[in-house]
Input
Amino acid sequence: MQETIAAPAKPKIKLAFPTRAVLRWLGLIFGPLFIFALFLLTEGADPIRTFRMMFNSALGDRYGIGEVLIQAAPFALAALATAIPARVRLVNVGAEGQLAMGALTTTFAAVFLKDTFPGFITIPLLIVAGALGGALWSSLAGTLRIRFQLNETISTLLLNYVAFLVLGYFVHGILRDPDSFNWPFSPPFVDQARLATIGDTRLHWGVFLAPIAAIIAWYLISRTYIGLRLRVVGGNPEAARRAGYNVERIQFWVFMAAGALAGVAGMIEVAGVEGRLRPITGVGYGYVGFLAAWMANHHPLWLLGSAVLLAIISVSGDALQITANYPPPRSIF
Output
């Protein structure tokens, strides 16, 4: 009796829809808006009118869109400074201080160079100066983590406060502009050290550094041997050691790269927006970037969207203080 063997059934290909990711994003976007609407109702304000004013102020014209992009760029770079160390199981809360150090070293370079070189030479030098400032500052936390096993979450957080003390020391000291009537400002940057603006807005070409950095980071992480090593170290550090990887060295250089990205954010803040250094330059940007990275699950491309979303909230919140006479948020510290 001859048996017939049935042909194996062809596997059905199912396209996985990222339901969980979509629900998380919807919750992140509409959850806070719903809570804010409830708060407005308790205060006797009209939520619909308030949301309309927020939308018009941030996205209603070219000026508002430009302001959103100006703030989204440092947010995204600070988010990358958080997302990349997360790939190797490091929690970097220090983008705030690394950004401040990048702004400080950029200012030193701008004051030293002045108008010695044309802009197409000065600007790349300032980018390098900002990246070096942030990288050197992050190397402190990396050294404490590798050599002394000090938790990087604590060290980077505490170094943020030290960074602004250092920045304030120089702004009140040798970097203070003698023509500022005793205000703690650095001398204004010369035109060669300023990022060129687009049209008649404050939007500058430095905002393109954030998406370029995000695309490069995504490519390196997902398409190169460097990314493979990061995934191995992040997945199981002990297995990576047994495979011959120098885990501590990889973690240290990841810290340096993260600090460099945050330092570039400081550079575009002083060279593109303010044109000089102040004691409060970039305050809060690192923490917003930390939030943006976690909202996007540390994905280098997705965090661009969360950075823009947080920039919209920031710009519209500032506008509400002017148009609706809402008070500014009070610090909890």
